[in-house]
Amino acid sequence: MKILIPLPDKDFDLTEVAVPWKVFKDNGYQVVFATENGNRGTVDPKLITGVIFGQLGATPKAINIFRELEKAPEFLNPILYAEINVSDYGLIHLPGGHAKGVRQYLESTLLQQKVLEFYQADKIMGAICHGSIIMARTIDPNTGKSIIYNRNVTGLIKRLEKAAYYITSWKLGDYYRTYPQYTEDEVSSSLRHKSQFKRGALNPYKPFVCKDKNIISARWPEDVYLYAQTLVETLGKSEE
What is the number of structural domains in the chain? Predict the structure, then answer.
């Protein structure tokens, strides 16, 4: 069974890509990466060096996993978004990233069309952090609403995005503001009721995953191990 991970050309989140890839591979799944133009994706470099004063970057463990990923043939040779054949995959994983390069991926109407095909085929769909924006922007032509309109989901919660922006804006400007609108606000606006957006525990460091049928979502890198394992378990059950 294959798993698809679409990426932007640059600025994807290291942890949200490398850790799920490792979990998928360790569980025997073939992973395929895709980018808009077939270019190898490049990570947001600040997540390796540290966003500010060497802090707020990826953990050493995640960076070590990413160093493995950098050598993987599937990562070095992505397919095109246009080449995605949904029937080849059991699962799509939509990672995040907040630097401006991810806009290419978040705004791709071609990728949204492929995500719609995953939805229409009732495939397992996962999104973490800003990845939930792609599902929010994917419109079901039968209803004119987002594919997550009637679902419970999560994504990067506002208080985390806001805190990171306030802490770093004096030095990095709007680095932590991918868009003027916060991720939680955009995703919530695509739902029937804002209460369908789930924030998890008050302590955001307690891993949290929102699962609604075949749609699985998480908030940020602290959730990534639980998120990836939940995807694997769900995919395994679908194969029984």
Answer: 1
CATH of the domain at 148: 3.40.50.880
pTM above 0.90, yes or no: yes
Q: Which tokens belong to 112?
A: 């949204």
Beta bridge partners, 139, equal: 146
d(CA 158, CA 219): 10
Bin 8: left if φ > 0, else alpha if -120 < ψ < 50, else beta: beta
Return the ∠ at Cα 96 (arms to 109 and 221), rounded to 5°: 165
Domain housing 187: 2-239
Q: Reduced to 3 states, what is the DSSP secondary structure of residue 177?
A: coil
Dig out the tokens for 225 from the structure. Answer: 């191990």
Amino acid found at 17: V
What confidence tens digit (pLDDT) does each residue in 109-144 have? 999 999 999 999 999 999 999 999 999 999 999 999
CA dist., res. 91 & res. 179, Å (int): 27
Q: Which two tokens stand for residue 148?
A: 């997550």
